[in-house]
Design goal:
Two copies of one chain form a homodimer.
Chain A (H helix, E strand, L loop, with lengths): L5 E4 L5 H10 L4 E4 L3 H8 L4 E2 L3 H7 L2 E4 L4 H9 L4 H4 L5 E4 L5 H12 L4 E4 L2 E2 L1 H7 L2 E6 L2 H14 E8 L3 H29 L4 H9 L6 H12 L8 H18 L4 H15 L10 H9 L5
Parallel strand pairs in A: 1-2, 1-4, 2-3, 4-5, 5-6, 8-9
Antiparallel strand pairs in A: 7-8
Helix pairs in contact in A: 9-10, 9-11, 9-12, 9-14, 10-11, 12-13, 13-14
Chain lengths: 296, 296
């Protein structure tokens, strides 16, 4: 059997370093991006440029996709010159974008009708994780397909988990973003309370790290709030997109997420005041605005 | 100088094991509790029973207090037969109850007028931590007073931090309880979302523990939600009391705590349905009620 040929569609801040890792490991990689300059950067490293997504799917056995949002994935997959038009039976589509878990299942069903397996494999870890190949990858799909793609995931990330069937990867990613946002909010309320009550938030944070309030967010984002270190990191506007996935899916599924809803409103308030490109720990600024008082 | 004589007022679920540790370390301990049977249990271990709080304060150099709430501390301190009536200059009062940070400062001021130093030293770790002498102790007051009392704290707990001046211990405890409640809520929304979207909450929890969503609460309380292990642990009604301290202080201080307020409402809903004595991870049951769906 010939060596597996790979494809990568979407060469933005995340996709570019991820695709680079595949090329540098010696794999044949066909690439496409709406931005020709991004394609050129990859071809200069040894990748093969394609005219559209369909061409990538015609040439590659496994097609990775990394684009911003649900409508972008739908377009890449099902447009006239999209992936689906170029696919043949036995090929695999791996969508690493962070998109709707509900629509992901529908996309997988449509591809299954063509005899094509899909994995949803959204990541966390951001640009830094993509460049360092240390992404956390949450995967939904069949075990056999996961086993086939796993060696390529291992070139892009470290903490790689098959969570369940199609959609389960996106579901885990949304669950992750809910917890991260709400824990940031929790740390923000607690440190602001401490400051307003006249205590030193830095010493309160220290005292709390040893107990049940411990979290990565209290460590990292708590420190950011105290140091006013709001350069991203993970941008407020990206977390707004992710909470929108959560709230849209909640409405579709029939589910109430009260704190996710108000956390989104607080992100909206930060963005309304010009903070959309700050790190998501800047959520505390919306609480500070409500209180007329800052953590430090 | 004679050996330091100790006093302990309040011998409930928490106070009894804490006082026991002091007696078993060989210290002379004068005790008082409203419940004579609790006093007898301590005197059978070698403590000396007193008729009221005033008598404890007359005999002891350092008086520890462990009672349920702010009005109880006020009564123990300032009633006719209270601690203040028996204190002399140079004595120390150590309030280990979890009460209002705002009123704590007022109590400390009133005692300072008598030449008496006070520490606020609330704990976390619950009955298990009290019995195992592994409590986290968050202290507010002067460094010199903290240094004097520290050896006795070390008999009752492990993670002992002077957070700041009077009130800072209570402030840290409230901040702790805010974070714990809101992180429980966050984990509840995320796991319920995962379940409703058709994923396995246990595998989602596993996948998330490696990333930024990591917390002690996701580990311990997330597992409780999945296993339906709602026996306490830390009871809903005690967390309601603590969030009431947060919300009351927020109003007094001029501060908005939106998620703390709705978390309290969710605890209220759990209690309204007979869950006041369940573990606080049962907060998820209020979310489940809203969704008409359970995590498992």
């Amino acid at each position: 059997m010939a060596m597996t040929t790979l494809g990568f569609i979407g060469l933005g801040i995340m996709g570019k370093p991820m695709a680079s890792h595949l090329v540098h490991a010696g794999h044949t990689l066909h690439v496409y991006s709406r931005t020709p300059a991004d394609v050129e950067q990859l071809t200069s490293q040894g990748a093969l440029g394609c005219a559209d997504s369909r061409a990538v799917a015609e040439r590659a056995d496994i097609v990775f996709i990394m684009v911003p949002d649900t409508p972008d994935v739908e377009q890449v997959l099902f447009d006239t010159n999209g992936v689906a038009a170029g696919l043949g039976k036995g090929k695999v589509v791996v969508d690493m974008s962070s998109i709707s878990p509900v629509e992901t299942k529908q996309f997988a069903d449509r591809l299954a009708d063509q005899g094509v397996d899909m994995l949803d494999a959204p990541v966390s870890g951001g640009q830094v994780g993509a460049e360092a190949a240390t992404l956390t990858i949450m995967v939904g799909g069949k075990q056999t397909v996961f086993d086939k793609v796993r060696p390529y995931f291992a070139l892009m990330g470290k903490n790689i988990t098959l969570v369940g069937d199609n959609g389960a990867g996106q579901t885990a990613k949304v669950a992750n973003q809910i917890i991260v946002a709400l824990t940031i909010e929790a740390v923000g309320e607690a440190l602001l309370f401490a400051a307003k009550a006249g205590a030193d938030p830095a010493r309160v944070r220290e005292a709390l790290l040893g107990g049940f309030a411990q979290s990565r967010i209290l460590e990292v984002h708590g420190e950011r709030m105290i140091q006013r270190a709001f350069e991203p990191g993970f941008r407020v506007r990206l977390h707004q997109k992710d909470l929108n996935l959560a709230l849209t899916a909640a409405r579709q599924l029939g589910l109430s997420l009260p704190h996710t809803a108000t956390a989104q409103e607080l992100f909206n308030a930060v963005a309304a005041n010009g903070g959309g490109d700050l790190d998501h720990s800047a959520l505390v600024m919306a609480l500070e605005r409500l209180a007329g008082h800052t953590v430090t």
